[in-house]
């Protein structure tokens, strides 16, 4: 097929050009009904005509046989996989679908601990038994990276009935790790490998990027196209290349889990993102590489700013992580926002920039970030010391306690919680990686890390009690 085509986009434009009259949903009637306030409506009027529904000729995401099927086939052919799916509910729905397709109630599943919350939600909904495998800790970056082959081997020995391994690759910061041998090991044991590659949708753009898990024959790979490709928020892909799971099973669960009113603008943007990636040239890579190098070089010249480097220089070049010697990551992020520079995330030590996948002859205002950082660092006293960060010390392999029949919960102070069974998700966000899960024994190390996150200004989802230094535990009989 011709990767210069955008079948869904072209079909939508052809339909709009016919100037049809809408007597169907959605209620804005192709953008005719808006607020009536010009200063607001001007941002929506050119966009809403694309917001259509399953009309004749526009196909149906849940049973594609026209333009959507063509667009998904182009995506699968580009990635050389058996089948690819458009996702309109983010990587979250892809993660849920692959878990439902691969696991059943009471199955044992190995999970890389620094996973996204949607992974644990899926495992919980299925009723499988999660076993955490702890990734390597990078002491320079002060973040968790990837898992090792040796640790996966050990986990399989301890849990020989394992049905699936769920990996996160790359991590939020763009770190990657050797996948090929891990996937081969699992397949030799009949174990399905599911990969949350949310931050690697652009890896197929060229040799300057790490390999995708698709190149190592992972069974199912989910990618957030909207994170680094020109796709709308919630636009994502699911790719299946498995001998163990049929594509029809994925389609079944996606039909159950995805919206019955999928967004045509999101789907069209996924078609555009595939086109953009498939037509990314060597010259585009050369231009991008130059701009990234110039940005990093300018950052390195700012006193008090350190640009973190990947181990053996292997990692995602679109991720640039900096550390300020005199500020926590949260403090630096806030100061940048005061100057109109909005970064992807901060942690107690670092600030993460996600750079654009630029084409040749395309510029981006990197200099604004440089000027803002220079101005900030010129005002910070050199004598001020960065706050220390507790190091995450987790068991290498640990199985969660299975909680039956919703036992009562009780709030206790953080110090009182040590040794008890956690009753809530403790979720610093971003990056959406839980520090504690319900059913996990709370250790002193957990509490030390949690206190440090609170002291350095970390944000948590749906956990107001944490800022009052309280946490929920299960009251278990005999406990």
Automatic annotation (TrEMBL):
Keyword terms: Decarboxylase, Lyase, Pyridoxal phosphate
User: Which InterPro entries does the record cross-reference, listed alphabetically?
Assistant: Orn/Lys/Arg_deCO2ase_major_dom (IPR000310), Orn_Lys_Arg_decarboxylase-I (IPR052357), Prn/Lys/Arg_de-COase_C (IPR008286), Prn/Lys/Arg_de-COase_C_sf (IPR036633), PyrdxlP-dep_Trfase (IPR015424), PyrdxlP-dep_Trfase_major (IPR015421)
Spell out the Pfam families in the cross-references.
OKR_DC_1, OKR_DC_1_C
Cofactor(s) for this UniProt protein? pyridoxal 5'-phosphate
Q: Which residues form a coiled coil?
A: none
Gene3D superfamilies in the record: Molybdopterin biosynthesis moea protein, domain 2, Type I PLP-dependent aspartate aminotransferase-like (Major domain)
Q: Which GO terms describe its molecular function?
A: carboxy-lyase activity
Orn/Lys/Arg decarboxylases family 1 pyridoxal-P attachment site domain: which residues?
7-304
Please report the stretch or stretches of sequence annotated as the Orn/Lys/Arg decarboxylase C-terminal domain: 409-453
Family designation: Belongs to the Orn/Lys/Arg decarboxylase class-I family.
PANTHER family reported for this sequence: ARGININE DECARBOXYLASE, DECARBOXYLASE, PUTATIVE-RELATED
What this protein is called in its record is: Arginine decarboxylase
Q: What is the organism of origin for this protein? A: Cytobacillus horneckiae
Query: What high-level taxonomic lineage is stated for the organism?
Result: Bacteria, Bacillati, Bacillota, Bacilli, Bacillales
């Amino acid at each position: 097929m011709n990767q210069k085509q955008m079948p869904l986009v072209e079909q939508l434009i052809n339909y709009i050009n016919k100037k049809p009259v809408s007597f169907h949903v959605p209620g804005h009637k192709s953008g005719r009904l808006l607020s009536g306030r010009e200063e607001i409506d001007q941002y929506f009027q050119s966009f809403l005509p694309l917001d259509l529904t399953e009309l004749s000729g526009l196909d149906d995401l849940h049973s594609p046989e026209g333009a959507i099927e063509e667009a998904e086939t182009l995506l699968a052919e580009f990635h050389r996989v058996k089948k690819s799916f458009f996702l309109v509910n983010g990587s979250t729905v892809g993660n849920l679908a692959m878990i439902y397709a691969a696991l059943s109630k009471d199955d044992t599943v190995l999970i890389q601990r620094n996973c996204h919350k949607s992974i644990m939600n899926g495992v919980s909904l299925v009723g499988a038994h999660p076993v955490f495998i702890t990734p390597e800790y990078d002491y320079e970056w002060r973040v968790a990276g990837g898992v090792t082959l040796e640790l996966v081997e050990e986990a399989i020995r301890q849990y020989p009935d394992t049905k699936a391994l769920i990996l996160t690759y790359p991590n939020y910061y763009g770190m990657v790790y050797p996948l090929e041998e891990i996937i081969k090991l699992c397949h030799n044991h009949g174990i399905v490998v599911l990969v949350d590659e949310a931050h690697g949708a652009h890896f197929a753009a060229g040799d300057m990027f790490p390999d995708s898990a698709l190149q190592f024959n992972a069974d199912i790979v989910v990618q957030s196209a909207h994170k680094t490709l020109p796709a709308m928020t919630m636009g994502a892909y699911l790719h299946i290349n498995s001998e163990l799971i049929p594509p029809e099973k994925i389609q079944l669960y996606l039909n159950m889990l995805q919206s019955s009113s999928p967004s045509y603008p999101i789907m069209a943007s996924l078609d555009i993102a595939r086109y953009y990636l498939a037509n990314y040239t060597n010259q585009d890579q050369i231009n991008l590489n130059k701009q990234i190098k110039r940005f990093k070089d300018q950052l390195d010249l700012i006193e008090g700013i350190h640009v973190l480097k990947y181990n053996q220089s292997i990692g995602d070049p679109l991720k640039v992580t900096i550390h300020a010697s005199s500020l926590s990551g949260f403090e630096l992020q806030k100061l940048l926002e005061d100057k109109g520079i909005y970064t992807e995330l901060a942690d107690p030590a670092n600030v993460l920039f996600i750079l654009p996948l630029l084409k040749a002859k395309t510029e981006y205002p990197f200099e604004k970030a440089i000027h803002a950082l220079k101005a900030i660092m010129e005002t910070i006293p050199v004598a001020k010391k960065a706050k220390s960060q507790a190091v995450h010390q987790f068991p290498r392999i640990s199985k969660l306690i299975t909680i039956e029949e919703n036992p009562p919960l009780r709030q206790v102070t953080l110090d009182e919680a040590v040794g008890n069974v956690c009753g809530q998700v403790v979720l610093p966000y971003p990056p959406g990686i839980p520090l504690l899960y319900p059913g996990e024994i709370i250790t002193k190390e957990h509490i030390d890390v949690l206190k440090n996150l609170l002291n350095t200004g970390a944000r948590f989802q749906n956990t107001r009690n944490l800022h009052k230094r309280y946490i929920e535990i299960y009251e278990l009989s005999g406990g």
